[in-house]
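Page 42, continued from yesterday. The earlier attempt failed because a stray header line got pasted into the input along with the sequence. Redoing it now with the clean sequence only.
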Amino acid sequence: MSCPNAVTSLSSISWRTARRSVLPLSLVLLTAAPLALAASSASEDLRYREAIENARNSKLDDAAQSLQDLLAAHPTELRYRHDLVAVYAWQGSYAQAVALARGLSLDTTPLYVLQAWADAEKNTQNLDQAQAIYQAIDRREPVRLAIQISLAQLDILRDKAPQALARLQAVDADKLNPADRIALQEMLIRTWLALQDYPEAIKQSDELLAIAPANRTALEAKFVSNLRMDAPRLALATSLTLTPADRAAAKTAAISREIRWGRAEADNSRASSPTRWVTTDAAINSAQQHIDELSRNEPAGSDALLRQQYDLLVVLVDRRRNREAVDLYRMLQLQGAAIPAWLKIPAASAYLALRQPDMAIKLYEQAFAAKVGDFDAHVNYVYALLEAEHAEAAIAAADQLVADTPEWRNNAYPALRVENQNYPAAQLLAAQVRAFTEQLADAQRRVDDLHRRAPGNEDIAAAQADIDRLRGWPRRALTQLNRLHTLSPDYIWVIPPTFDAHMDTADFAAAATDLARAQLEMPDDSVTQRMERNWQDHLRPQTVTTLAFGRSGGGKEGLAGNGDVHDLMFDSRVYSSPFADNWRAYARAGWQQSTSNVENLLRRVGGAGLEYRSPDWSGETELDGANGSSGTAGGHVAVSYHPSDFWTVDLGYAHDGDDTPLRAFADGVHTDFTNTALRYRWSESREVGLVLSHGHFSDDNTRLGWGVYGVQRAVTQPYYQMDVRLDVGGMHNDLPATAANYFNPSSQQAGVVSVINHWVQWRQYERQLSHRLTLSAGENWQRSYGAATVGGAAYELEYQLNALLDWRIGTGINRAYYDGNGETDYSVHATLDWKF
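This time it went through. Structure tokens are written below.
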């Protein structure tokens, strides 16, 4: 089936859509039909003409069915095969067109059939086959512009836009008729778009619009180019009649630009600037309104709606409206939206801010699996692991980030090599992870090394000070932080660790100043919210109540020989809110009772006092009264001096205080005790101390006591620490043991070694369940009774429900000797510490 005129008419439109090509194709079929009458019966010829008429009237399905039947009846008749290939291609049945066309000769098959075949191969992504057919057409008729356009389209599909441009620019436009010049210009515009040269695409579009003002290709290209160049307002100003979907996409792009501009404005504004979030807040309102409009306007399509929702989620996280961001993310999930991997990064940040670290971890890992996520995302992933209490995984992730972060960028090119700003941040993160998992010595070693290598790095200096504070050196931390503030007065991240150090040193006035500064300079940051919570907790009243039960042999109370003795102890203090920065008033009530089968010893006490805390001094004074014959007014004064992070000196005096034996109290004996202690604490891992006491009893007894101790941490792991403690001490009493009803050895010394195990079973932010097990063994010596082995075991469970409420319960068993009598004591206690 061949007709030169028909082929020429096809070549001018074959690169367009099938729908626009039906009429020329039908003309080809009508022109060629008389050449084949001899091969068909009259009825078949009539059906063939009907197929042509159906094709002319865009009834391609009917045309295809007729041609299929004719080809089935005459399988060797090429005209039916040729026409069916063409109809399949314009019908969009590309796979069927390819299957039917395969095997046709490139040299003898009509050109319009070859072009339909080539288009079908292109649309089924058989690009090599399509190019071979287009090139065959070009060899047979080189002047066909449509083939050059088709080859250019093929180049673009194969990511060879520069080759497409060269092909089109080689066409001599001066030899083309006006319609073909427009077709060439349109394809050039599409090629510039493929090259992402949007200014040139706009220039070419303007040139085309000068001669064809309503050309849709040019108008669409300007619309797309303005969107791509982040000029959505110009895009919306087009004279093009936009579809609802295009208009929605342009408005979405315009709002997205406002969001990005707001982010840039916020990043480049001081945190305290009142206008920092003005643009962002306006963009959020615009995005929410646009989402409402799109939700009601179905013709606008879902693409613009989803993109606007994605952008809104990101900016809500930027604005720290994390609850709204999470609600939006969950809504997208419920809608079955195809959530892109990059969106899971801000969603994870929102979940992390809302204290849902496990969900954050899941989203981060999904994003990382899709090769999405920058350095900051990996840092936040480590924090999510920490907050989920996956200590080992957090350490491993931080160490992996160190391994993946080179010290230099462009290291292979010395002339281009620059420092990688993420390298010290990764190293610092690895150190901080150790600090947050109780491995403070390792953390300090790492951060000190970093500080030596980068003494001017502000983040490292602040972290070094914070780790000093965690090790029990808040004064040293403050020295470092004050120096940092002097050198970098605009570095606001010095404020949080300074606040924490001032709280640790009981410099509450300075801490209040730090908080006010944070509220001014970083009002929206979560760390400021954390400081506010801590300060409000500090201002709360507090009660500490302990209740203990025990069973013993009574030797300590002077009840030995009376069978089992049951002990009961209760003590409760209620503290006021702080006043005048450093003071708290408190009221105290308690009792101590020991009951045997022959007598009952009871001491009830009530009193009130003042507590004082400051950086250099702390202490308390109390006036109290007790029942019984010795129930005159009593009290105590205790003072501690803290000259440095390491030294503490304690002084105390008590009249009828807690050091008074219960039997002595019951017998009307008054006491006056003075105490002195000297402590040196290297860090959380080591401490030594000396304690001296002098007590005068109204029965003319004088008691001298002394003790030394040392504590050394033996094991440090995440969630588990083991300390070894040595205690050696003794006492001397002037009054003979037989002259006192209470336990009163003339001389006694003891040495005890204790192993203290502490481990955290689980922790979730302020909530924590931990255990402490202490095992002790030693030797006790008492004059006239000799030496004996002593020991004990104590277990305590601590459940911290939140930052305000802490509950401890414990039990213990202890083996001791009183005047040569061995006793096994059992005890149970509970303590409630509540800020209300």
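Notes: The two ends are 97 Å apart (CA to CA).
Reminder to self: strip header lines before submitting.
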